[in-house]
Amino acid sequence: MSHFQLTKVQDLNTDLDTIWDFASSPKNLKEITPDHMLFHITSEVAEKMYPGMIVTYEVAPLLGIKLAWVTEITQVKDKHFFVDEQKVGPYTLWHHQHFFEATETGVRMTDIITYKPPFGIFGNLLNSLVIKRQLNAIFDYRKKVMNRLFNDSKPL
Predict the structure, then answer these.
(1) From CA 115, how far away is CA 133, in angstroms rounded?
(2) Where are the chain's structural domains?
(3) Is the pTM of this model over 0.90?
(4) DSSP secondary structure letters along 117-141
(5) If you classify domain 4-150 with CATH, what class do you get?
(6) What is the side-by-side strand order in the sheet with 65-77?
C-alpha cells in the first residue's frame, strides 16, 4: 500500500522569533485553515507546543462531514522545526514536518507532509481523484494567509 508526500516551501519576510511565535501556537491553526473545513480545536491547549502535546480537533475534510482528529506534537526544536503526527483521524498515516530556516531576506518555511489514505487501493485512487488536490488547496490557502500576515505589509 502506498504512502504519498507533499512538500510546500514558502519564503516569508519576517524573522525566526516572529514566525516561531505564530507557528508554534496551536491556537493559530484556525486562522490558516480554510473556513469550509469547519476546523475547531476541541481540547484545552497551551500557548506554545511541546513534545508530547496532544491536540484534538473537529474537521470536515469532505462533504461537510465532521471527523475527530487527534494529533501529537512528537518533536520540537525551538525556532527550527516541529513534527505533528495523527493519532486518530481520517488517514492511516499522517506525519507533518514543519521547518524554519533563516535566509538573507527572512525565513524559509518548509512543510513536508507524508500521508497514507485509508481504504488500501481504493484510498490510492481517492488520493489521485480528491485527496491530493484537496491537500494542495489547503496548503495554498495557508500560503495566502501567511503571505498576508508576513509578506504584504512589512519589510524585514
Answers:
(1) 14
(2) 4-150
(3) yes
(4) -SSHHHHHHHIIIIIHHHHHHHHHH
(5) alpha beta
(6) 4-12, 106-116, 93-103, 81-88, 65-77, 54-62, 40-41
